[in-house]
Design brief:
71 residues, alpha+beta, two-stranded antiparallel ribbon, two-stranded antiparallel sheet, 4 strands
C-alpha cells in the first residue's frame, strides 16, 4: 500500500548501490534523511553531491520537498 497525501508520495524504495538490496521506506515530511543503513550489507548511505537526502540519491521517488518544488 502506498502512503500518499494529496500533494506527494511518502514512500520510496531505496536501492543500495553496494549490494542491490531494495527496501521501501516512509519518508519524513518535516526533515531530510541524510543517513541510511542498508539492512542487507550494513553500508551507510549518504546523499550524493548535490542531493538533499538519501531518497533523492538512492530512492525511486524523491523526497517530499523536491516533489513539491516547481519544475
Amino acid at each position: 500500500m502506498t502512503t500518499k497525501t494529496s500533494d506527494f508520495n511518502l514512500e520510496s524504495t531505496i536501492t543500495c548501490p553496494e549490494c542491490g538490496f531494495k527496501n521501501t521506506e516512509t519518508m519524513p515530511t518535516d526533515s531530510c534523511r541524510v543517513v541510511y543503513d542498508c539492512q542487507s550489507c550494513q553500508t551507510i548511505l549518504r546523499p550524493k553531491a548535490g542531493d538533499c537526502c538519501v531518497f533523492c540519491s538512492y530512492g525511486d521517488v524523491p523526497c517530499p520537498p523536491i516533489q513539491q518544488s516547481p519544475t
